[in-house]
Write a structure and sequence with these properties.
Order of helices and strands: HH
Number of strands: 0
Largest sheet: none
Helix content: over 70%
């Protein structure tokens, strides 16, 4: 495994890390509290967008 493939791997994981940080930020600043009506749906959608973007980034970076 060379440096380019390791870099591409971590670049592909970046959208997932950003989506997890967004959820952390919303929770730590009391924006997304337990009283929020659609908290679970927003969490699932945020993570799904992060995973989808990560998949797209991985497939884009590893074209042959």
């Amino acid at each position: 495994m060379n440096t380019k493939s390791i870099t591409n791997f971590f670049l592909a994981l970046l959208p997932v890390a950003v989506s997890i940080y967004v959820l952390f930020y919303l929770e730590s600043n009391a924006i997304l509290t337990n009283e929020f009506a659609h908290r679970g749906k927003i969490s699932v959608i945020t993570l799904a967008i992060g995973f989808f973007c990560s998949l797209r980034a991985y497939s884009f970076l590893n074209k042959k």
